[in-house]
Amino acid sequence: MSNNIKGVLWGLLSAALFTLVSALAKIAVIEYHVLQILFVRQCFVFASALPVLLKTFPHGFKTQHPLPHALRLGGAFVALSTGIWAVALLPLTTATTLAFAKVFFVALLASLFLGEATTKTRVLGIALGFLGVLIVIRPGFDGLASLYALVPLAGALGAAVAVVCVRKLSQTESTATLLGYQAVFVGLMAGLPMFWLWKTPDLFGFVLLISMALIATLGQWIGIKALRLGEASLVSSTEYFSLIYAALLGLVLFSELPDAFTLIGAATIIFSALYMMQKEHRRKAALKPT
């Protein structure tokens, strides 16, 4: 079995685990605040990163670029919190579909702030991607399908800001620094409101919150393993299987059936993202010296 196939299989598992976390969040958010769910999750992320943080402390937190770190942390916080909020407000498949707008926000922001080439392929991919988003939220058909659709879109924008900042920071900052800032400060942003929002869970709630945190942490490390084994373009494409997982979990757990607009929009978004990835891969391959 080649490393690419191994990477794809690990990527499929990681996508399944993160989709399962979203489904569990849809259950947990009935009783617990979004920030409490995020805080418990970040506690486990912090614990998993603790060996690296201790090994590199205090040098791992030294930076000459505080503003990009602040933007990245703000974007990550918005993405993580709205990701939980979105599944409480929308069907699981719809929330998952709209979160894929991150791909097109990243392409747009990278062109504007990182100077990445604004090719015809990228422009067409971004346009098709946002067309898919519009199909899902369908403005003009009974107004906006739901104002709640703006929540996962805000999360997608936050995630894109975080990704673009990481691309910029990775040129000068160590992996330990990038890991440390997110593990500590996103947890703090979610943790400070716990003085007012904390609700002591019962046994079921405790098991649910801990399970979500463990599964999310496991999914994160499996995702890293997948990227180490396979080509990034191949492994990244496995993320779109989240839609299949979300549709199945939504049907089994919540009796949700995605409507035609969601399915057509999802197909448009996936096609545009894969088209953009393939064209970019070919362009880069053509530029490599033979």
UniProtKB/TrEMBL annotation:
<dbReference type="InterPro" id="IPR037185">
    <property type="entry name" value="EmrE-like"/>
</dbReference>
<feature type="transmembrane region" description="Helical">
    <location>
        <begin position="147"/>
        <end position="166"/>
    </location>
</feature>
<feature type="transmembrane region" description="Helical">
    <location>
        <begin position="234"/>
        <end position="254"/>
    </location>
</feature>
<feature type="transmembrane region" description="Helical">
    <location>
        <begin position="178"/>
        <end position="197"/>
    </location>
</feature>
<keyword id="KW-0812">Transmembrane</keyword>
<comment type="similarity">
    <text>Belongs to the drug/metabolite transporter (DMT) superfamily. 10 TMS drug/metabolite exporter (DME) (TC 2.A.7.3) family.</text>
</comment>
<feature type="transmembrane region" description="Helical">
    <location>
        <begin position="98"/>
        <end position="115"/>
    </location>
</feature>
<feature type="transmembrane region" description="Helical">
    <location>
        <begin position="260"/>
        <end position="277"/>
    </location>
</feature>
<dbReference type="InterPro" id="IPR000620">
    <property type="entry name" value="EamA_dom"/>
</dbReference>
<protein>
    <submittedName>
        <fullName>EamA-like transporter family protein</fullName>
    </submittedName>
</protein>
<feature type="transmembrane region" description="Helical">
    <location>
        <begin position="33"/>
        <end position="53"/>
    </location>
</feature>
<keyword id="KW-1133">Transmembrane helix</keyword>
<feature type="domain" description="EamA">
    <location>
        <begin position="6"/>
        <end position="137"/>
    </location>
</feature>
<dbReference type="GO" id="GO:0016020">
    <property type="term" value="C:membrane"/>
</dbReference>
<keyword id="KW-0472">Membrane</keyword>
<dbReference type="Pfam" id="PF00892">
    <property type="entry name" value="EamA"/>
</dbReference>
<feature type="domain" description="EamA">
    <location>
        <begin position="150"/>
        <end position="276"/>
    </location>
</feature>
<feature type="transmembrane region" description="Helical">
    <location>
        <begin position="203"/>
        <end position="222"/>
    </location>
</feature>
<feature type="transmembrane region" description="Helical">
    <location>
        <begin position="73"/>
        <end position="92"/>
    </location>
</feature>
<feature type="transmembrane region" description="Helical">
    <location>
        <begin position="122"/>
        <end position="141"/>
    </location>
</feature>
